[in-house]
Amino acid sequence: MFTVKRSIDGTALQRQNRRLQRLKTQGVTRSTVFVHRECKLALDDLRPHFVDAAKAEALSELVLELGKKTKPTNVAQVNQLSPFRYPGGKTWLVPEIRSWLRASKTIPDVFVEPFAGGAMAGLTAAAEELAYTVVLSELDSDVAAVWETIFDGTDTAVEWLCNQIASFEVSLENVQKVLAGNPKSDAARAFRTIVKNRMQRGGIMAAGAGLVKEGEAGKGLRSRWYPKTLGERIRGLRDLRDRITFQRGDAFDTIQQFITNPNAFFFIDPPYTAGGKKAGNRLYTHNEVDHERLFSLMATARGPVMLTYDDAPEVREMAMRHQFRIQTVPMKNTHHAIIRELLILKP
Ligand SMILES: C[S@@+](CC[C@H](N)C(=O)[O-])C[C@H]1O[C@@H](n2cnc3c(N)ncnc32)[C@H](O)[C@@H]1O
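A: This is the predicted complex of the input protein with S-adenosylmethionine.
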């Protein structure tokens, strides 16, 4: 009796093993999972899908959906470090950038933000010591003048800039005079850039943007000028200058310098001119970027990469073709509608 049972069990076992072997050749292996009884029904419904390779993408999407943030970051709670209110600024992405850097086992040697603009990511990385050093680059000479004054200028130049800001009498006439000026020094150019950034609608840096409405007795313009805060931010950043290197020039050149460094982290936020959305065209003076070249280059980076883009099919296609991982993050656009932006990642 005992022998018969053993032989039945043995046959069943052999059959089971053969089945497992066969499944293994099809890419299916056995996993043990702990399931709460309340979730058992959901697991049973999903069970047939787990063995189907064609469902892998849909299941990963589902996992992202389950884990993802549904509410955008409250930007008022993020410590604003930049003197810019930059169009397309990434204040809302600071929590994600912070967790991305903190999740790394080692502190990055260098955090590279080659399309710097208002540089929210890089400034946060430097201020919170999330990387040993930070490298920023920017092509727009007006924007570059601000970063060069703060990080490479003399103490006198920085104090001059802060004093100009503190003593500036905001009126339509004075704003127009500064904007029409032809500053000779970097510090004077930095001052004009800050006035332009604060007083042009939406902080738009490209030519042709109108000024914010003057309002009654110049109130509209004045409401945009926070001299004390601006001075504090500039002096605060000056204190971080040992950790931050600024390069005036092309993002591609800056990226090339660190592309083979496995401990260089890249945060890439180019102007959005890829896909159907062309917001970058009217926001920035320099808005033509070869996105295909950018993706190809970033795919070769030895270190981790995070790119941010509008959620456009062309962008998803490029990201997938270059084998990046795609995630979406909620944000509030200028009309306060909640939209999702793409985070494109390479570990
Ligand atoms: C989307 S904005 C960056 C915003 C920034 N992440 C922030 O938080 O403020 C893109 C920036 O890239 C700059 N840019 C465009 N082409 C560039 C290039 N080839 N090299 C360097 N900077 C460039 C633009 O002038 C603009 O300031």
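The CA atoms of residues 146 and 180 lie 18 Å apart. The chain has two domains: 56-139+249-347, 141-242.
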